[in-house]
């Protein structure tokens, strides 16, 4: 009997990176959460709790009410940002998750590094490539591990897509299309995420906040980095004055593979990654949002398979990976050096949008 | 009872352009076919015969065997290209369908115009914008109607998609993605279509032959023309030496609407058009090939409808439109002036691929 498909299906959601038995973990990595926006509360906190390798112990935010609320609902220690940075409860955590507005990541990472704590920093790593580079250096100098929160990279569906590409399932990749959009004002009205409209805090809007998904996920699955980029940004709605409401960009990877990407903070919901190769296609749709049940379509030689998977909790997987790798002292893949390339590419796309020119990234 | 959906469904495939009762047509437009490649034989001939407004009467090709074969299988008059151009059987047809290699369209259209015959010319209209312009002028000077063979424009699914956009169903269009690819060498081995590999005959390969579908269909459904374009072409396989095997391009429409397009003559089959607006999305997948059963997905406000339609014979619809409009003396929409814009845009994309610069099309 041919068991190949059976084995493939059974192993589809395996954690290919896991060497430590979750049941054998007595002392999970204790995490301090910095920043209590909706993603932290709705996704990161539950993700940390679900993961066998992590537990949340401390929370902080500039919004004292939010800290009180979370602390009173849980057994977490709530502190002010000042107390956190001063290390007043540093004995209560081993690692720090930073999910504040982009331009404030550095200050919290500096504090964590000074305290000798490992860091999981949200993406984009900072509001500019220069600040992102400082952030990487701070962690390197302090000798603390730094992971960047690319939750797509630890999603098993995305990892299987990458495996297929790596195994040559579609031949040589030729073209990539990626689109991701949402109605930020409509979906998130009244939410503290409105800091994304402040260029000083965010460093940009559609491209910084959303563009990083098509960019990083394409890099991850192709296992390659762009060599040239071009792009355009556009703002029509007055709420987006000073930042980019819509953006499109083209990433050129080695061998001329082109990724055509569009993102928007003010368009109907879209979420799709599509790779066409010389011999087949791989389509992830929906692709990028944490709340979506990702579906993978696999096409080759007239055969199409649609793979629907019981969704993992994407942020649990991310924190499990982080905790697991700290406990096993294993190098982390989406690290600062990896994330720094995104910061530079995003900056190059903004530059291209200003000048109308292609920006070469090879030196 | 709410009959809105019922009426919509019932009228979905209606010919919104048809004013003449097909059953009332005694004398359909008699068509001479020039060029007997696989598309002419497999699609155009049956399309002409199926349409109540047209009938095929004459065939010609530089391949005398092909002419003999078709003439012996049917009751059509087969003639040599020389005899055709000399008008030897001009009394047997009212209109001429030109489906020869791109760079030879002009000579046959000149003959047809001289004979006072209406013309349906395959797309791209010619191998260069200059020759395309001459072709348009030849017809204008002779006062003969000229239609260009954009079979997507008379497909009811495409027309309904256009209606929805026009009615504001998705709000303002924001981004378009289009992809179309095939393995030309594999799918068409031994076929006379290999003239597409000869730049003198074709004027280009992936972009000219395939790129025109995303380009023209996007123009048609948005009812707008690009104001700026950029693009890249690439050739890896030796069989494509001298022409473009792969291409990607960005079309910028008025108001900054961006269409991101990829095409290939040597990649896995893909065929998709996707429009994201401020309030919804319209997705045609498969979209572009004559043999596909087009499916339209309509998304707005959390509702998604998938529309599958009994496929029309796309080339029947095209010839029915052509014949109908000649019989009723009605202006033809995809005319030479319309097609000339595609020729200029394609040339601008090739220029951009050479220079790496964006080419502005507004003057």
From TrEMBL, chains A, B:
UniProt cross-references to InterPro entries, sorted A to Z: Gfo/Idh/MocA-like_OxRdtase_N, Gfo/Idh/MocA_oxidrdct_glycsds, GFO_IDH_MocA-like_dom, NAD(P)-bd_dom_sf, XacA-like
Gene3D superfamilies: Dihydrodipicolinate Reductase, domain 2, NAD(P)-binding Rossmann-like Domain
Residue stretches making up the GFO/IDH/MocA-like oxidoreductase domain: 158-282
Pfam families reported in the protein's UniProt record: GFO_IDH_MocA, GFO_IDH_MocA_C3
Keyword RNA-binding: no
Superkingdom field: Archaea
Keyword annotations from UniProtKB, A to Z: Oxidoreductase, Plasmid
Name of the protein this chain belongs to: Gfo/Idh/MocA family oxidoreductase
High-level lineage: Archaea, Methanobacteriati, Methanobacteriota, Stenosarchaea group, Halobacteria
């Amino acid at each position: 009997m041919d068991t190949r498909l059976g084995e493939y299906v059974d192993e589809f959601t395996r954690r290919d990176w896991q060497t430590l038995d979750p049941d054998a973990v007595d002392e999970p990595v204790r995490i301090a959460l910095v920043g209590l926006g909706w993603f932290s509360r709705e996704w990161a906190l539950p993700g940390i709790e679900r993961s066998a390798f992590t537990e949340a112990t401390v929370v902080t935010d500039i919004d004292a009410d939010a800290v009180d609320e979370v602390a009173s609902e849980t057994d977490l220690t709530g502190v002010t940002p000042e107390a956190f940075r001063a290390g007043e409860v540093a004995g209560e955590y081993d690692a720090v998750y930073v999910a504040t507005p982009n331009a404030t990541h550095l200050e919290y990472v500096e504090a964590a590094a000074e305290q000798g704590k490992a860091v999981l920093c949200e993406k984009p790593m900072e509001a500019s490539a220069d600040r992102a580079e400082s952030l990487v250096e701070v962690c390197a100098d302090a000798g603390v591990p730094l992971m960047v929160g690319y939750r797509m990279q630890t999603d098993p569906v995305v990892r299987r897509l990458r495996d297929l590409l790596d195994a040559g399932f579609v031949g040589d990749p030729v073209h990539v299309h990626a689109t991701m959009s949402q109605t930020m004002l409509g979906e998130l009205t009244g939410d503290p995420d409105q800091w994304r409209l402040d260029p000083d805090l965010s460093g940009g809007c559609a491209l910084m906040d959303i563009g990083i998904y098509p960019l990083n996920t394409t890099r991850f699955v192709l296992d390659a980095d762009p060599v040239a980029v071009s792009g355009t940004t556009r703002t029509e709605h007055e709420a987006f004055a000073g930042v980019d409401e819509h953006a499109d960009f083209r990433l050129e990877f080695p061998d001329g593979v082109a990724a055509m990407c569009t993102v928007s903070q003010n368009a109907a919901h879209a979420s799709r990654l599509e790779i066409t190769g010389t011999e087949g296609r791989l389509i992830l749709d929906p692709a990028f949002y944490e709340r979506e049940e990702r579906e993978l379509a696999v096409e080759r030689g007239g055969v199409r398979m649609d793979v629907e998977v019981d969704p993992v909790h994407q942020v649990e997987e991310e924190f499990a990976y982080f905790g697991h790798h700290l406990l096993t002292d294993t190098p982390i893949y989406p690290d600062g050096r990896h994330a720094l390339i995104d910061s530079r590419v995003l900056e190059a796309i903004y530059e291209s949008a200003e000048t109308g020119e292609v920006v070469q990234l090879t030196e």
